[in-house]
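Could you please consider the sequence and fold appended to this message?
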Amino acid sequence: MIPLYHDLHIHSCLSPCGDNDMTPSNIAGMAAVKDLDVIALTDHNSCRNCPAAVAAGERLGVTVIPGMELTTSEEIHVVFLFPSLDQALSFDSYVYDHLLPIKNRPEIFGHQLIMNENDETTGSLDKLLISATNIPFYETGKLASSFGGICFPAHLDKSSTSLISNLGSIPPDSTFYCAEIKNMEHLHRLKKEHPYLERCRILSNSDAHYLWDIAEPNLQIYARSKHPADILEALSSSPVNGA
């Protein structure tokens, strides 16, 4: 097992709330400058910039895991990660069909830019990506598995769009073994209030929308290699000590 500095929740300029400087190459470049080993591109309800980000990461020696931050029908944010681009893009098509038919207004919400590996704009998406889908939270675990990936609830300590804030508690029949907390200072309180988290591997990612917010190399995960499949395997196993 090798230690890997990581940031597994990053938005590009495809997310309407993401800065336009968050291009795939810029993101991979900043990760390389900060000596991160692995990152994940997780735009709101879309994986369309993952191919360019993966290619940029390969040039710069940074593993880029293709992913998405899904918004469920309860407006809960859930991070999905996939071992391959094909699986991520298949999931992307599925989610876009389940996204509410609300048209983006760039002058209000921001642009939704699709980029190629040279950071050239190749298109945009019409549906507003920060809208909810009609996919309920209880389906997310099985849905991730059906597309060959994993998922975990995002920023549990956030006062909105989190599993705890929107449902009030963690459903006892949940099946996730990984969870994200924005501020690790909240971990002890959250574990005390929600004992389910004792069985989870706890991550803290940047949820970056701007280049300077991408995480510093402070936290590590251990995996057999830098290959996305090995990293996802490490994340999906229940940790002995819960963190």
In short: The domain at 2-236 is CATH 3.20.20.140 (TIM Barrel). The chain has one domain: 2-236. The CA atoms of residues 51 and 169 lie 36 Å apart.
